[in-house]
Amino acid sequence: MNTLLSVQNVRKHYDVRKGVLGKHYQVRAVDGVSFDVRRGEVFGIVGESGCGKSTLGRMICRLESITDGDIDLDGDSLAGISDRKMLQVRKKVQMIFQDPYSSLNPRMTVGDIVGEPFIVHKLAENNADRERKVLSLLNDVGLAAYHANRYPHEFSGGQRQRIGIARALAVRPKLIIADEPVSALDVSIQSQVLNLLNTIKKEYDLTFIFISHNLTVVEFFSDRIGVMYLGAMVEVAAKDALYRNPLHPYTQALMSAIPVMDPHKRKTRRLLEGTIPSAINPPSGCTFHTRCPHCMELCKTKAPLPKLISGEQYVCCHLYDK
Ligand code: SF4
Fold first, then answer.
1. Interatomic CA distance for residues 3 and 303, integer angstroms
2. Most exposed residue of 7, 118, 218, 275, measured as fewest CB within 10 angstroms of its CB?
3. Which residues line ligand 1 at a C-beta cut-off of 6 Å?
4. Nearest-atom index, ligand 1, CA of 293
5. How far is CA 261 from the centre of its chain?
6. Residues 122-164: tens digit of each pLDDT
7. What's the Rg (C-alpha) of the chain?
8. Which domains does the chain have, with CATH numbers?
């Protein structure tokens, strides 16, 4: 299995002005993240809201520019890529958003929404060919042909997400970035959409980056998982290893908070103190040290580097310094 995506030490910093004097600050939304995604796998990214996981996803789609570092997608470098070249590369990577309604133009019919990529990327021979392809996509995502003439507001949340999935599939992408694709849906609908994603993954030979704050959903769908905290990836491991033996204190706290129905399998819950610090002025050293129950003096001054512990499990924590 070879690498489709290589994210190399990427950063996304925003300049903002705050207060009556308009003082200048820098927000470090993503601050030096590296990981690879192999062809055909689902790479999950988890973390609390505000940890930078959605920004990272948008950078890989180039919906956000890259402040520093590089992203290699199937041989194309995305840092500094021209708009013209990005139009070609965009056929390789598509995004599915959390709120399908806000990402669908309410004035366009579903047929026009799903058919638009065929026009933008010149992927249909004529109108009849485009219509045939749109109906085929609607069928693949579980919608009927008559839905093509309706508008987004006429659909339920789950159906709207299916429309978003059909639109993403139109260009036959290699990589799909699904950013909280089911978190706005009712629990009963979530499993239907997850099953659909599983089916189209096989049928369209897709690779996924699956972004979510919900560890149960990520466990269901992912092969490997990266855990993000305050703009950095603190642990990366195969799913089974991560859920069986989380190493980073932050991952351990997240895992211990997963609800377990069986009282014999319940773990001691490790409550995290405080809230996630501001990305404007992140803590020195290990950025998790202000909330970590194992914090040492070293942690306050020196940022830990990623260490390979076993197999494919990497962790950024001084507890594992040799
Ligand atoms: Fe906790 Fe220190 Fe490890 Fe950071 S480096 S997670 S503060 S033990």
1. 28
2. 275
3. 248-249, 286, 288-289, 292, 294-296, 299, 304, 317-319
4. 1
5. 28
6. 999 999 999 999 999 999 999 999 999 999 999 999 999 999 9
7. 21
8. 3-92+174-187+206-320 (3.40.50.300)
